[in-house]
Amino acid sequence: MAKLGFVGLGLMGSRIVKRLLDAGHEVYGYNRTRARAESLIQAGMRWKNSPKEVAQAADITLSMVADTAALSSIVDGDNGILAGLSAGKIYVDMSTVSPEIIRLTARRVADSGAEMLDAPVSGSVSAVEAGTLIIYVGGSKEALEKVRPVFEQLSQRVIYVGTNGQAVSMKIAINLNIAPQLISLFEGVLLAERSGIPRAEALDGLLNSVVASTAMKYRAPFILKMPDEVWFSAAMMKKDIQLALDLGKELGVTLKTAELAKEMLDKAIEMGWGDEDFAVLFRVVEQLSPKKEA
Predict the structure, then answer these.
(1) How many Å apart are CA 125 and CA 16, to the nearest integer?
(2) What is the DSSP string of 234-258?
(3) 236 in a domain, yes or no?
(4) Are 120 and 167 in contact (CB under 8 A)?
């Protein structure tokens, strides 16, 4: 088995590393806050003190971080991933970030003699734990085939999209749909509830109708009970919607539903709910719909 590295041991990254360890891989890891990695170290992950050290030790280095700025912070500098790459190595970024930074980074990776793939995922915590992610891949097909056995430990399907930056463009195109769908569903729930149907029954009816999507089915029930651990915050969803709006502006594509979603997410953040799961959009719908006096 190839030696693997992973940088960014957050909610998703930590679970990816755990699956790779359970599959018998040798994994080197780094996280800005070491305390968040202790359980993985106990499970067999080999701690490294910088992204550079991870890339030096691994044949294939993967990363997953929150945003474009965070990606720059782990890639650049004397202790960044780029400083640890050399000929024959492969770098895979799984973050949802700007396609432009992926293209720029891929060129710099190539200058080191290594190869890069962008490989964002569709699916949340439960999909990581079950190994049922969908992985979208941009970069060379040859590099993909070298990494495919690793991806297959994590996913139910690997979809090759095209060149570097195109996989993350695909992920942005997917994510721009989620918040508008959820807002529409929540409006339906509230409309049914105000008609006298209990909230749980209204939600059950909608989620068992033709309008329900996979994303709705696992996230909409959060309006009845929020998870103990935030899976994806309103602030993070706003970040993804902004990526879509920026890409739409660059390519001349009007994204009216994304604009509405951003407005609603801005309202959630304004109300102090930015760090809560973005299912908090239901509360925003409620706040914008005051009950009429009888």
Answers:
(1) 10
(2) HHHHHHHHHHHHHHHHHHT---HHH
(3) yes
(4) yes
Q: Where residue 294 falls among pLDDT bands split at 50, 70, 90?
A: low
**Number of domain units in the chain:** 2
**Position 158, amino acid:** V
The two three-digit tokens of residue 68, written as one number: 């474009």
Of 162, 178, 206, the position where a domain reaches its end is 162
Q: What is the CATH number of the domain that holds 35?
A: 3.40.50.720
Query: Within this chain, do residues 158 and 188 fall inside the same structural domain, yes or no?
Result: no
Residue at 235 is within a domain: yes
292 inside domain: no
Rounded CA Rg of the chain: 20
213-228 b/e (C-beta count within 10 Å ≥ 16 → b): eebbebbbbbbeeeee
Asked if 200 contacts 220 with a C-beta cutoff of 8 angstroms, the reply is no
The C-alpha atoms of residue 216 and residue 68 are separated, in whole angstroms, by 27
DSSP-derived secondary structure letter, 29: E
What would the pLDDT profile of 61-90 be if each residue is shown by its tens digit?
999 999 999 999 999 999 999 999 999 999
Mean of all residue pLDDT scores within the chain? 97
Task: Please identify which residue in the block is written with the tokens 């290594």.
Answer: 114
Which residue has tokens 């780029």? Answer: 82
pTM of the model: 0.95
Residue finishing a domain among 162, 186, 215: 162
C-alpha–C-alpha distance, residues 194 and 209, integer Å: 19
Q: Where are the beta strands (DSSP E) in the chain?
A: 4-7, 27-30, 46-47, 60-63, 90-93, 115-118, 121-122, 133-138, 155-162
Q: What is the CATH number of the domain that holds 259?
A: 1.10.1040.10
Distance CA 88, CA 109 (A): 11
Question: What range defines the domain where residue 275 resides?
Answer: 169-287
